[in-house]
User: Which sequence fits this backbone?
């Protein structure tokens, strides 16, 4: 049993190394492109693990503390695998003034999760972000990279329902 665990760990490390090697071959100056490199890792697997950060630091000679500071500063990055649908609810001033608190509660009620959590079926991850830069459309939410604006509770429920239907899930 211990042998399988060690082999699994080694296999994961090799996969991480090959993923990072494949991404790094597209860049000359790692230090100037560290955010883009981290974005590519996140796009490939849905998150940036601690092991990814360690491997990246070893290969680029960028201090691990710098990599972790970037990963923890930007809301876009996640240390855990996100659900199939990533929902980013804007918590900027314009969105707050226009009622994002009601939207947060609607999302919590519809999905049975709070910001920072993923549904048990891994269909949805809900995150709250400082600003999505679409203040004229407040309140807004980004769903899988697409901005939805001028939202109200009804529109949010429709978005969630549509995503569930696309995934073949029946609403409860």
Assistant:
């Amino acid at each position: 049993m211990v042998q399988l665990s060690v082999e699994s760990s080694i296999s994961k490390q090799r996969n991480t190394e090959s993923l990072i090697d494949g991404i790094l071959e597209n860049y000359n100056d790692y230090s100037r492109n560290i955010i883009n490199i981290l974005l590519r890792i996140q796009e490939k697997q849905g998150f940036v693990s601690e092991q990814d950060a360690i491997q990246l630091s070893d290969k680029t000679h960028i201090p691990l503390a710098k990599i972790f500071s970037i990963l923890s500063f930007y809301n876009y990055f996640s240390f855990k695998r996100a659900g199939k649908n990533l929902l980013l609810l804007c918590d900027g001033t314009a969105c707050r003034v226009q009622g994002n608190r009601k939207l947060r509660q609607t999302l919590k009620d519809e999905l049975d999760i709070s910001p920072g959590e993923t549904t048990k079926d891994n269909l949805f991850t809900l995150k709250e972000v400082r600003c999505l830069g679409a203040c004229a459309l407040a309140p807004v939410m980004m769903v899988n990279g697409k901005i939805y604006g001028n939202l109200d509770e009804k529109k949010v429920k429709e978005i969630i329902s549509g995503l569930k239907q696309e995934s073949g899930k029946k609403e409860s």
